[in-house]
Amino acid sequence: MPITLTPGDHGPRVKALQELLVHNHTGRRFYYGKLDGQFGALTRQACARAKWWLGYSTCEPVAGDLLEGFLTGKRALTAAMKQRVVQRKKPRPRPPEKTLQQRAFADMRAHLGEHEMPAGSNHCPDTVEWGHGAMPWCNVRVSLSYIHAGSTAFSKSAQRFQLVSAMLEDAKAGKHGLVVTQHPVHGDVIVWDYPGGSSADHTTEFNEWLDSGHTMFSDIGGNEGLSGVCKADVNNFAFVRAFIHVER
């Protein structure tokens, strides 16, 4: 009988899946968390990410025998899946850098590969520029991208917005030129809410929707993974708390 791994599952089968999501037949790394055998939020995101690059038509954040077969190479991709993979690997055109949001995203792109030194220290060029010591820096990277783009909503001296939760609360209230939006555009801020943490755990910047159902999208974020790096990725909408539009 086929086995499906779902949230809350744990044990050797989950750990083996996590290892496959790191080292697999595609040569891509999909999982950046600890190999802890817990089928949590990061593992679920990795499953959706793997399905996207394997050519699934829908990318639910669950796993089972079929996904494991594709990852090991023991099961061949269908013709339709192969065709989707080809299309998804094609370079996508970059938008112009005219709007505030577009300029902020261009700054995020310019910092791809920036990382902590040493890993896990939260010490990186962004926290040095921010000037308030080593700290979790996902929202520091977002804030700096908008400052570099000319936004007046963010401030290094006032440490606005160092905290994700503070930024989300201001956006809900329409303060400092921030508003919550249901229709994100390129460069808008994504607030993530992962189970087991606070209601606003992480931020990245939105690039574009990748499917008509608006379940998968691409983004760039800082302080990603165990080593703390700025990287581009493909993600599932499941853990998005809100999208924030910066008006000034």
Comma- or semicolon-separated keywords:
6-stranded antiparallel beta sheet, 248 residues, endopeptidase fold (from Nostoc punctiforme), two-stranded antiparallel sheet, single chain, Muramoyl-pentapeptide Carboxypeptidase, domain 1, alpha+beta
Structure description:
- With 248 residues, the chain is α+β, with helices and mostly antiparallel strands.
- It folds into 2 domains: 4-89, Muramoyl-pentapeptide Carboxypeptidase, domain 1 (Orthogonal Bundle), CATH 1.10.101.10; 100-246, endopeptidase fold (from Nostoc punctiforme).
- It is built from 8 helices and 8 strands.
- It has helices spanning 12-22, 41-54, 65-72, 79-89, 100-110, 125-130, 138-148, 164-173; strands at residues 4-5, 63-64, 178-181, 189-192, 202-209, 216-224, 229-236, 240-246.
- The strands form 2 sheets. Strands 3-8-4-5-6-7 form a 6-stranded antiparallel beta sheet. A two-stranded antiparallel sheet has the order 1-2.
- A hairpin with a 4-residue loop joins strand 6 (216-224) and strand 7.
